[in-house]
Amino acid sequence: MSSQISRNAGYNTCKPRYNYHESHKQRLRKKRIKQKQMARLRFFTILFLILLFALPNIFINTYNDLFISRIKNSAIKIPEYTEKIYDKFFSQSKFFPDSKMYFLNKTNKYLANNLFLDHKTVKPVLSPKKRVMSPIEMNDSMYTLTHSLNDLLKDYCNIEPGIFIWDFASGDYVSINGDKQFATASIIKIPILLELFKQVEKGDVALNEKLPMHDFQKAMGSGNLQYMKSETEFSVKNLAKLMIRQSDNTASNMLLYQLGGTNELNNAMKKWGLNKTSMANWLPDLKGTNVSTPKEIATMLYNIEKTNFLDFNSKLDIIKIMSKVRNASLIRTGIPQGSSADFYHKTGDIGSMLGDAGVVTMPTGRKYIIVIMVNRPWNSYSAKQFIIKASRQTYNAFLHNNM
């Protein structure tokens, strides 16, 4: 017995006790480490996939901007006369007097101009792929009428007129400086009116909708709204009537603001296919920066009733509004007194330009478009005399079929 004890005395015959708590902590630690490793792996996998798709596009665009576009545009030059025009414009600008802003301002002017509350916003005006307006269908030139109007012009050597006349029945026309740009003055309110009714047709604007008049929309010159209390509300249709019939500049600015400003109007006119008509400034545009051509003004009048550019109700409303213009001292005066001829139109009058544009329907039912825009010495009365006489000659030519 004692020998057995002595043999086992050198070592412990008991098995080590299993520590369950310690083993569980190790398993949890390993599990957390594995979860962190998987999360890290997922993050780097997603990042790799993003970079895999993004980097080629970034590289291609950067390469194009730095090299390809530079090569393509290397031959483009801005004409000197354009530089001089904008040099003069910005040297007189009151909105950005700081010379450090000169080149930024010039860039703004090239792209677009939306000026309100002394802020300019830049938005490119894109050329459309498809016309929305139909071009005028022109047949032959009216040689006799063209010759007589040129003879009349010989008595007015101090003015420069642009004339476009178009006969609904034959498609024959007169074009004297018809594609030359002139300041539009209030004639620019014709495209504002057309775009207003286009947005009414789309449901973006309602004619009975009330618009409040804000201080920044008030404009000097034509119209009485400028003297009324701010925040007074007017319906869209009443504003349209005031804009055309009384040539109210404040009403025009309220509608233009509702339509999205000069940029949106310029974009609309580009879509219509009018490449020489643009609105650079809100009204009144006393310096004549808003421009168009007699032919493009005539194109707008042509599309009021000759094409499907407008729906039937819009055509009726526009003709009704334009048939009651207060200023009847230009083309209307050239139509014989007592004549039952109908005439809807819009006039424009600033110091350097006088014009009138509309559609004459004679008692016989014959109809023609007539646009006369005259560059003149400041407020020269000779421009008014010329427009009246040119209108009278045109009416008589259609009356006696001597064109």
| Top CATH class of the largest domain | Alpha Beta
Q: Please, what is the average pLDDT?
A: 83
β-strand number:
11
Strand content: 5-15%
Can I get a quick summary?
This protein is an alpha+beta fold and 403 residues long. The chain has three domains: 22-73; 80-111, no CATH class; 143-399, 3-Layer(aba) Sandwich (Beta-lactamase). The protein is 46% helix and 14% strand.
Polypeptide structure, described:
The chain has helices at 2-8, 20-72, 80-91, 102-111, 143-153, 189-202, 236-245, 249-259, 261-272, 294-305, 312-322, 331-334, 382-399; strands spanning 114-116, 119-121, 160-167, 173-176, 182-183, 210-212, 233-235, 291-292, 342-350, 353-361, 367-375. It has 403 residues and is an alpha+beta fold. The protein folds into 3 domains: 22-73; 80-111, no CATH class; 143-399, DD-peptidase/beta-lactamase superfamily (Beta-lactamase). A hairpin with a 2-residue loop joins strand 9 and strand 10. Helix 3 crosses helix 4, helix 6 crosses helix 8 and helix 7 crosses helix 8 (249-259). The radius of gyration is 36 Å and the shape is elongated. 32% of the residues are buried. Residues 75-124 have low confidence and may be disordered.
Highlighted features:
single chain, 403 residues, five-stranded antiparallel sheet, two-stranded antiparallel ribbon, 11 strands
Topology (elements, then pairings):
Layout: H1 2-8, H2 20-72, H3 80-91, H4 102-111, E1 114-116, E2 119-121, H5 143-153, E3 160-167, E4 173-176, E5 182-183, H6 189-202, E6 210-212, E7 233-235, H7 236-245, H8 249-259, H9 261-272, E8 291-292, H10 294-305, H11 312-322, H12 331-334, E9 342-350, E10 353-361, E11 367-375, H13 382-399
Antiparallel strand pairs: 1-2, 3-4, 3-11, 5-8, 6-7, 9-10, 10-11
Helix pairs in contact: 3-4, 5-13, 6-8, 7-8, 8-9
